[in-house]
From TrEMBL, chains A, B, C, D:
Keywords: DNA-binding, Transcription, Transcription regulation. This is TetR/AcrR family transcriptional regulator. Residues 39-58 bind DNA. PANTHER family: HTH-TYPE TRANSCRIPTIONAL REGULATOR RUTR, TETR-FAMILY TRANSCRIPTIONAL REGULATOR. InterPro entries: Homeodomain-like_sf (IPR009057), HTH-type_TetR-like_transc_reg (IPR050109), HTH_TetR (IPR001647), Tet_transcr_reg_TetR-rel_C_sf (IPR036271), TetR_C (IPR011075). Residues 16-76 form the HTH tetR-type domain. Pfam families: TetR_C_11 (PF16859), TetR_N (PF00440). SUPFAM superfamilies: Homeodomain-like (SSF46689), Tetracyclin repressor-like, C-terminal domain (SSF48498). It comes from Microbispora maris.
DNA sequence: GTATAAACGAGACGGTACGTCTTGTCTTTTC
DNA sequence: GAAAAGACAAGACGTACCGTCTCGTTTATAC
């Protein structure tokens, strides 16, 4: 039950080598020349592939980029849970600091901005992103929060979606809009403020 | 005290009519055809203006779009403070619901996505945005929070920047990434959760 | 030994239809709007062709025009010799009168002026013109003179190149510079004067 | 009797300095960048003059070029007759060799080609050229021939216009179309052939 | 083992838009 | 009131890519 398609008479014989070359080229190129100058033509040339091979299998430039990200994330261990030492605040700071580090990593900055741009203007891609890349990550985050909730460290009636977005939203926004320095200290500050709330205790 | 520049010998005589026509055309067009199909050529044609007149005064498509937003926002009353009834939670809900309504308004959706895209890839534009459009708004928000802080409704040592970002960040992120329904109820939920914090009280 | 190219892997598949459409459009347009207003853009539009298809195959506007002339001249019978009734003077008058008629024909006037302009400023084009269009014609003319020479009607030591240029040069010059009326009588006069020479006999 | 316009009531205060600067700039520029890249804009910049000053006084780029030639030729002695040693053939060879030398002079090549181009497409300019530049020269040539005619060295009933064109036409044509080497020997050959005629004597 | 049919690399095609350049007009300021 | 300066609407320049469409050439079953 591994085959993606039952091998029907008019068989598909897609070239795996071309697929990988295209995705790799797309990811590298967007990092080198930036989103604005990324072109199908350029990807095809870099991958040593005919343009038609791209148009045959992907509906848009964004879809190629998206698959390039998927390919990368498949290398990672999906089942890897977030750290759970019992100390929620420390664990969250660890994870958010890691997020900050990744957002500041120049290897991922341009590609992620490019993908974000595509998501911004393509609802279908946005849905795919939410489903394939964002949801698994969010699920891990919610899992950690659920564990804390069971331990009585979080409000019983807390909406975990809102909680996750309140923790990661500020970071993403600073990154996207360059609305301020994106430092580990900022991550810590967000965690503390979110946990305690704005009101005095 | 009217002259913008001291009228030097070979002075500049920029056409205000062309400037307004270009900005108006840019804003309208991005709403009609979307960001991807927005072109300098199209803006010039719609504005009844030569392309060179655009290239002469703006360095990029994003800069035009940015100025179009600036022109709109200049119509608004900048000194208008956020509502302050004394009931912080209610006031915040009112404001965030208004934000939600604006983000959902189709007249602003495409233009704002377009501007966001440009900001995403152009640090200079991002700085201009932060300075000219975002900061004044953020100042108003912080002012309201400061008032609440003085009234003892917010922690004394609260970082107001973090607070503002924790309130508005989740909304903006849902909007940008279409990561879930952007409803008034969501706005309320964000306000409540932010004020009380994730921890049980 | 029939194949023009050994059909290599990435072979060329130039569109003959586009080529003809471009040349026809170029010839028609130069007659309609004149040389000064002839543009690649206009040719492409008239021919229903992308600009790149012109730039791909021709190095300059002049080269297109030149090929347009070539296409026309290929329709004509190249082997057609000049008339040879035995009466050299009469034959030359016939031919030069025909030349005068053609130069005065409004259908060819503008296109030929345009081509001449390009030749005037482009040595490479001038060489191509001399080789492909001018030389075959000149050869026919020299052939007729050679026949007369054999019949003792022309000096034995006559330089036929000089002779041809002395017969046709004055006509072309009047046409180019509009230096006087270009009439059949003028053609006759040139023939008579050239044959007899300026000196009294 | 030097003024071109009588000083009419609404007096003209045309700047002679600008006029000369424009004509000089035009002549120099056409020699430097060639006809194709000669622009009004460039002439104005080189001359340190506003574009309007050119448009105000000349109807076309060709007219500027034409006046530039006029200015040069005014420096020359118009009354200078062609050499008349009594030996017509030798005198003609001298003059035609001088013509050849001038046509081969790179300082005059480009400017003359440029002017020729303009004449080619502008009948009004052609008429001005014929009247102001060509006719005076032609008159000198005809004068020399008339002298020879009186001396019995040329046919009594010779059409001097045709004669002049038969002598100079071949040279100009070779120059224009680069239809062969333009050497002093060629000039000699033309003179000899024209004088003796094509027919055997 | 061939047939055969798809996917492939290559790249020409009709187009759109780019950013630059020049045209000829218009306007402002200086002399 | 002519001149220098230069903004303006218009539009062509030559280039880069778009997405579609043949071309021959692999290449991997299916016969």
């Amino acid at each position: 039950m591994t085959a993606q398609h039952g091998t029907a008479p008019g068989t598909r014989r897609r070239s795996e080598a071309s697929r990988r070359a295209i995705l790799t080229a797309a990811f590298e190129l967007v990092g080198e020349v930036g989103y604005a100058k990324l072109s199908i033509e350029g990807i095809a040339a870099r991958a040593g592939v005919g343009k038609q091979t791209i148009y045959r299998w992907w509906p848009s430039k964004g879809a190629v980029l998206f698959d390039a990200f998927l390919m990368l994330s498949e290398g990672e261990d999906d089942s890897a849970a977030l750290p759970d030492t019992g100390d929620l605040e420390a664990d969250l700071k660890t994870v958010l600091r890691a997020t900050v580090a990744e957002l500041n990593d120049p290897r991922y900055d341009e590609p992620m901005r490019a993908l974000t741009t595509e998501i911004l203007h393509d609802p279908a891609l946005a849905a795919a992103y939410a489903e394939r890349l964002d949801r698994p990550m969010k699920e891990l985050k919610k899992q950690r929060l659920r564990s804390a909730q069971r331990a009585g460290q979080l409000s019983r009636d807390l909406d975990l979606d809102v909680a996750v977005e309140m923790l990661w939203g500020p970071l993403l926004n600073r990154w996207l809009q360059r609305g301020g320095p994106l430092t580990p200290e900022y991550a810590d500050s967000v965690v503390e403020t979110a946990l305690d709330g704005l009101r005095p205790r």
